[in-house]
Structure formats: structure tokens, C-alpha cells
Amino acid sequence: MDNKTKKILLGAATVAALGVAGQPADAATTAVNMRGVIVQAVAVTQTRTLDFATMTETGAGTHAVSVADVSTPSASITVVAGTPNAGGFQVIGSTGYPIDLTIPAAATVTHTVTPANTMAVTGLQIRNAVSTQTGVAVSTSLAATTVTGFDVGGTLNIGAGQAPGVYTGTVVVTALYQ
Q1: What does each C-alpha distance from 31 to 19, 34, 35, 68, 148 come to in angstroms?
Q2: pLDDT of 144 above 60
Q3: Checking phi first, is residue 100 left (phi over 0); if not, alpha (psi -120 to 50) or beta?
Q4: How far apart are CA 48 and CA 86, in angstroms?
Q5: Which pLDDT band holds residue 96 (cuts at 50, 70, 90)?
Q6: pLDDT tens digits, 56-76
Q7: CA 178 remoteness from chain centre
Q8: Is the dihedral of CA 70, 116, 170, 177 positive or negative?
């Protein structure tokens, strides 16, 4: 046997020995099942504007519109036109999955012509069929219809000598699956 053949046989024996030595004496395997569920994406749609109506002011004051459409202006505020009403929105998602809704405690409305003029809207509330929450999270589970309605109320803070004009703004309602 020549040197070349001896080297090949020695290399093969080394590989075989290492291969056997590298295997555990007792090995086991298993399969892990996998699963995924896709649910309908949560959607939030406005159904009504939180409307404080048209007012006059004879001094600083407030005008509260509750989630039940109850208008409560302070003594220096008079509603002269329109009907104040709570805002509304609906949440659409997959039946039976809990959803958290959040709303800030306050927002701002801005004069449409002179943006430097603003008013705060405080005490923002969300009402569903179960409860009314002020500026905090609300949890709900969607019913079989997959659409649940909510109301939004709040208090408009009007300054003495507030500039006349139209004021608009938004309040962000966030809906997330729990």
C-alpha cells in the first residue's frame, strides 16, 4: 500500500470516528404545531359631530354637552341657534374580541379664520352601553353585529370677549384589540 492510499484511509477513519463520537447516545425529536388567526382590522368611523351649537357670551363661561345630548351652558353663555348634541362614532371589528378605546381628557378647537384664537374642550367623555368614562380608556367586547356605537361629550371653555366665528377641531379616539 502506498503512502497516498494510507493517507486517504487514515483520513476516512478519522472522519468516521469523529462522526460517531459527535452523535449523542440517545436523541429525540418532536414536531411543534403552528397556528395563526386573522381577525378583521379595527375601524373607527365618526357618525355625529360633537356640536356645541351657536352661542353668545357675556363673559367667560362654559357650555357642556353630555354624552346623553344634555346641553348645560353657564349663566354667561346663551345658545341662540342649532341643537347641541354629543358626538358619535362606531367601532367595527371581529365579534367577541375585546377592544380598548381611549380618548384624551381635553382637546382644542381653533378659529377657522384666525388660528391664534382657540378654546379648550375639557372633560371629554365616552359612553357605551355599559358605562360613561371621562378621558380614560374604555374596554368593550364587540357583539354579534361586530359594530358598536359610542357617544362623545365634553365642555367648551369660552373666554370673556372670545372672538366671534366658527371654531373647529378634532378629538382622537383610538381603538385597539386587547
Answers
A1: 25, 10, 13, 56, 41
A2: no
A3: beta
A4: 7
A5: confident
A6: 999 999 999 999 999 999 999
A7: 11
A8: negative
